[in-house]
């Protein structure tokens, strides 16, 4: 038996077990590592639409952050350039973590990540099925 999982990992497995019981997820053959198989077809279609919106919102946030730095007249041009470069580097990693690998098997996890970043409106989140919303809330440890 391996090391004890971190508390968040235990919560993750609990949420996955609950999602499996609701018929949303199917465990892989390796019982210690559950794979999120597929979300419902209707939710997958919603995710594909929301993905584009969330990417756009994320990019708008980054551009606003860059603009604030760019117009900060208290810093030198070279310092502002370095700050902008760091922002773009960091945000490039963030955008990859949040939005790369748009596959149905990763749909629930991607929705949870997008939700955790505040990139979905309540109306958009409500457009998902109650089962999917429940799993996402459990993954994010929200009531």
Query: How helix-rich are the residues, as a percent range?
Result: 55-70%
Number of strands: 0
Number of individual domains: 1
Number of H/I helices: 6
Multimeric state: single chain
**Alpha carbon gap, first and last residue:** 32 Å
- Radius of gyration from the alpha-carbon trace, in angstroms: 18 Å
Q: Tell me about the largest β-sheet.
A: none
Overall 3D shape: elongated
Order of helices and strands: HHHHHH
The SS-based structural class is mainly alpha
What is the mean predicted local confidence, pLDDT? 82
The low-pLDDT segments are 26-36
Q: Tell me what portion of residues adopts beta-strand conformation.
A: under 5%
Please, could you describe this protein's structure?
The chain contains six helices and no strands. The protein is 65% helix and 0% strand. The protein has one domain. Residues 26-36 have low confidence and may be disordered.
